[in-house]
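Following the same procedure, backbone shapes were mapped to integers, yielding the entry below.
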Amino acid sequence: MIDAHCRAYDAIHRIYSEQGWEAPRVSYNTINISVYGFDKMVTDMLNARRNGVERQDMPDYLAAGKQAWDAEVSRCPVVRKASVINTGAERLLDRLATRLLEVSRLGNGIAGIYGSDMSEKLDYLAVDFYDPFARNLIKPPTVQDLREKRFNFNAEHWEWVLNPVAMYHFLKAETINSGGLPVFIVENGMCHKVYQGRVEQRRDAATTDTFLQAYIFEAMRAMKDGVPIIGYLYWTMVDNYEWGSFDPRFGLFTMDRSRSPVKISSVDAWGTNAAGAFAGMISALRGGDQSKIVEAFTRDDW
């Protein structure tokens, strides 16, 4: 995948240059995961030449990158205490990633990075942020899951732990070895569960308006502290087919698929004016009036 990215990056930039077009902005993204080898390691590799790292120095460079990443991630607050088993599983995944993803096993990717005429392989950093901690995502199916024919050994979308302050720290961690590249939050969202037409309250009782207030606030705090954020996209505008099911409802606007044609509501699945809240925050920020910004990020009557 690293080799393929390098080839695609080079080809896109070459074509744009040959056509005389404005330079493109090419990136890649994965969902943020606390395990360095499953997430930030690839970004650090792709930025190695930008950072002046020689091929033979890659192992030491990645070891230092992991140390810095782990240090920043460790500053995230614990919102929900995980079991000893889940915490141990997360540590095991980290050790396995460190052992299996050694530079010696990544020959094709290294060749793609250092065999290119272009030293740069990213024009910006793209991140997806949901629940980034592996310890929260491991969960055997409950009796209710089995009744609803869910046999996954992972937390469902509506069970992901909300941790807005963690997004601040992960954004800070993205700037490690980034060479000053801008950061684009291309996915961030929360969902409600709708099963057989019935919406269920989230375990944490969160609603989309309060979610947006908290997470956009943390993005702005990261900007204030030096993270060069260029954009934020909420996932998603309308409810979608999410990894095999319509049950997770992420949309700012919910969709009723029980009728034909499908009806799109002006509110989200829980009945919150999520789009209105989002629009209100955007309008307040664009206007620049401090009192209106404070109101938009604290009101609870959208």
Q: What stands out?
A: The chain has one domain: 2-296. The longest strand covers residues 183-188. The longest helix spans residues 2-19.
